[in-house]
Design goal:
Layout: H1 2-20, H2 24-44, H3 48-73, H4 87-116, H5 136-144, H6 148-168, H7 179-197
Helix pairs in contact: 1-2, 2-3, 3-6
Length: 198
């Protein structure tokens, strides 16, 4: 019960941070924290497949899409300045996070073997078999039969978003087929700039 309230506080705080952050990159980091807390919430509900999909699909693919969109939209806005090297400061937190993740993994593996042991007294079933809550079989059957249309619509919306960002932030230079044509276009652009400068 305590874990639920801790996760609920993290979910609400990270959601507020996502929409109130000053920079878009900070919003992505807050959203990553929200997705991770939601994955742990799925684990507490014995929905292991949903937790793994939450990490792989949302935290991996969707957030990387957001990062690429931010990078494309903010490119060319201001010149890049080389700042101090902050990588040595990030080593210790990264090692700590990896060790905590391995600790959770070891705890989950040891807990799973304790549940499956004959002394548990109850046959909860494995997650991969049909009819068990959170099983891959039931989830796949529901996704590709009952909920197939929303699944395909989501994929289409994401594809349209990616194409729109690439078109909006793409290179505006005209296509040139040959070097001679490229030199002529460059000369005409210089002449146009000079005429406008006068």
């Amino acid at each position: 019960m305590t874990l639920f309230w801790v996760l609920a506080a993290i979910l609400i705080a990270s959601a507020i941070w996502t929409i109130t952050a000053n920079k878009a990159v900070y919003s992505v980091v807050a959203l990553l924290l929200n997705f991770a807390a939601l994955a742990v919430t799925y684990l507490t509900l014995s929905a292991e497949f949903m937790a793994v999909i939450q990490i792989i699909v949302y935290s991996g693919a969707i957030l990387m899409l957001f990062v690429f969109v931010i990078a494309l939209l903010s490119s060319g806005v201001a010149p890049l300045s080389v700042g101090p090297n902050r990588l040595p400061k990030a080593v210790a937190p990264a090692i700590f996070i990896v060790l905590v993740a391995f600790g959770f993994l070891a705890y989950a593996v040891l807990g799973a073997t304790a549940v499956v042991a004959p002394a548990a007294g109850a046959n909860l079933g494995t997650v991969g078999t049909a009819g068990v809550f959170g099983s891959v079989a039931d989830f796949g059957k529901a996704l590709f039969t009952v909920h197939l249309l929303p699944f395909e619509i989501t994929a289409l919306i994401l594809m349209v978003a990616v194409i729109g960002v690439v078109l909006l932030a793409g290179d505006q230079a005209p296509y040139v087929a040959t070097r001679r044509h490229a030199e002529r276009v460059e000369r005409e652009m210089r002449e146009a700039i000079l005429r406008e400068g006068r």
